[in-house]
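Input (Methyltransferase):
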Amino acid sequence: MGQEPHSQTTQAFPLSIRPDATNYDETLANHHLSSSATHPADCESSQVQGHTSIDGTIQLPSGAGIAGQDAQYHANQVPLQYSTPRQSSSQNLTPKGAHPADHTIGSPGCYDSSMPPQHRRNDSITTFPLTHPNGISMFPDLSVIEQEAMSRQALAQAEESIVADSDEYSSSGDAGTDAGYGSDSMSSASTSIGSSVRDYMFENGRRYHSFRAGAYNFPNDDVEQEREDMKHAMVKLLSGQKLHFAPLGDNPQNVLDIGTGTGIWAIEMGEQYPSANVLGIDLSPIQPTWLPPNVHFMVDDVESPWLYPQNHFDYIHSRHTVQAIKDWPQLFTNALQHLKPGGWIELQEIHHYPHKAKTGEAVPPQEHPVAQYWAYINEGLSALGVDFHAAAGGKLAAKMQAAGFINVNERIFHIPLGTWPKNQVLKTVGLYWRTILADGLQAIALGPMTRGMGWDRNEVEVFLINVRRAYNDNPTLMYMPIHIVYGQRPY
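Output:
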């Protein structure tokens, strides 16, 4: 596991930012990225249980990854450098209630797509047998065939009706209420990156992005990055390990990931499709630097004018951005212009509001503290110009069609809230989802409730006490829908 980087399959890339983020002007249009640097002589690592640390400075190779038609828009960006990769602190990756075991994680600075799936770090593709993000077997007593069958059953039930576990339902709560899980986090040491991007804002004890400050009302600190990586694992597990539902074929060339976050989806997409050039954009520079050679990241605001060539992308992906996008019609218009004829756009958005498993009805706020919590989040975001329920009621599909997309499809899957499903895959999905939400109570609430509703931090903390208890103690069977919406640009 602590292996040397393969020169043919892994490189360290600069992160780009929009010219206007650092007062660079249009004279950069003819500037081509270059930096004189080499790979480290070796990638020795000291391994301990569940953790690998790397010493030494990682520098960038010359002309990292900019070639051909992509130079047309990469040339407009500012080259940046990191000297330290995202470090892995994986000793707590597995939620309580899962299968703890001793495990040594491979070097996070050495991206190695040739490693067996069970030994890859958590930002590579997970295949059967199913594993937790740290590589520990999820169902060690089941064969690969049994796990595949259970996964197919889980996907079908999530789209139709989830069968409850009678033992779970009869109890007043479920096991594994509190979860420890780890993820990679970006070290900020020795960086050369525009100060308008790197100088984060701190508010109510949490760190927020500074580029286009206020455009995204949730933190970007290490704790939040851990939640985002776990959310990725949860959605993949629910989706039968699919990274996308749109029919892309075997050879997509240019892929855009909007709101890439930690970059985990973009990295796995680049590994799954070696033919594709994958670009991930986000307001926060929190992505790793050791990447597959076909994956790049850029600090950008998708709601600013797009810098990319028109008729360029084969596939545009956006997931978990409903809490940030304010102008969906404009986003769809931009996507239509920048997709190739026949290209696809896909949204994967959770409707963050609890529904009753038995009836499918939304839980009234007065009936449950969790429902009241999400009603307040929606109220706060509405005051900030964000429609937090944009994914509900077929609204995204309708807007996509109105923009001119054809072959628009919407699939809705139920994410169980807690471990009440009988199917073991769905039970694990529910454990992940409750952990993600319970651990993120404060992170989710602070921005909308202080910025949007005018609460102070103490009021928020007092309110959260009952919500946290309700997540763990109430036996109500609830789920949240995730809407998968995809459409095609006409030929």
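The longest strand covers residues 339-350.
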